[in-house]
Amino acid sequence: MRIFKVNWYPPQSEELERLFGGLVEFDIDPAREDADYRIDPERCRAADALINCSATHRLPAAVDDFARCRIVVREGVGYDNLDLEAWGARGVPVCNVPDYGTTEVADHAIALMLALTRGTATYGEALKRDPAGGWRFDAAPLIRRHRHATFGVVGLGRIGLAAARRAAAFDMRVVFYDPYLPSGMELALGFERLHALTDLMAASDVVSVHTPLNEETRGFVGAAAFAAAKPGLVLVNTARGPIVDLDALHAALRDGRIAGAGLDVLPREPADAAHPLIHAYAAREPWLEGRLVLTPHAAFYSPDAMRDMQRKAVEVIVAYIRDGRLTNCVNRPFLKAGAPIRASA
Q: For the D-isomer specific 2-hydroxyacid dehydrogenase NAD-binding domain, which residue ranges apply (predicted)?
């Protein structure tokens, strides 16, 4: 079978050839920043399966160009850059790889919290600038005790639950908002369920975002949420950048409604240096010092996670095309409304 990997970025795992050589032939197209770039339709037509490697880049080709394609896989968790409805109308399932970096992202969310609330980022920067003068325990403005503080989770899926368990290990009280979890999950987990984002913001000392990006969640954490925030709240986002309204966050940080934020993802990536919040961060404006930590959409990353992500994406394809077993499908509603799923050969 021929698998077309688009928006590919290194490192390429040599393990794939060892595991799937003889069964799978790869065609790899690198990620490009050129908005006008389009893949040669001949390459598209030759593909039995498609993998979109990027979390943010869209497919530089038309869905209809993939005449033979039986399955599409987003090599990662988020799939907001794939047209689920268009593929479903053609009877092509779209799948993701939801389990490759769960622990890494949960660890990173807690690390962002600690960078602010234990000052690990701020202390290091102060000492780097002035090893003697920066030797001050009060150099970090957001230090607090975690025991009995409240950790709020927006979206208690795999990663949100993993982050919640880590917060609970710090003796934090855990609350969550997730309208799609069935009733009773709060009893099974021992966490407190809240039924509105504003209630979560009002109750929490730290809020960690773990919801998917879709039309419902785009800009979801915005001005109304920040207006309801508990004084001193720290926001962490390791999900998708557009879930948090960056303009509203800038205003909330500027006027003190939000104490701090740790962001691994942004609405525009790489970071938009012209945005006032990013500009203030880069310029080290005094009002923001110690209150914002940025990382470069790296929460998912470890060498082990990269190997798992690439291997599991191919395993999803092989399971479907060779064995007729569909896993991790994210466009089932559109498949039901559209053409029937094409059976494997």
A: 110-299
State whether 133 and 65 are in the same domain. no
Per-residue model confidence as pLDDT tens digits over 118-145 = 999 999 999 999 999 999 999 999 999 9
Catalytic position from the list 108, 166, 257, 297: 297
Q: CA–CA separation, 120 vs 248, rounded Å?
A: 26
Q: Are residues 232 and 186 in the same domain?
A: yes
Query: Which pLDDT belongs to residue 66?
Result: 95
Provide the CATH number for the domain around residue 40: 3.40.50.720
Quick one: 202 and 172 in the same domain?
A: yes
Total domain count, the chain = 2
Catalytic hit among 70, 74, 166, 240 = 240
**Tokens read off for 307:** 């190997």
Task: Kindly report, residue by residue over 236-268, the tens digit of the pLDDT.
Answer: 999 999 999 999 999 999 999 999 999 999 999
Which of 269, 285, 322, 325 is catalytic? The answer is: 269
Instruction: Please check the confidence at residue 26 and state whether its pLDDT lies above 90.
Output: no
297 belongs to the catalytic site: yes
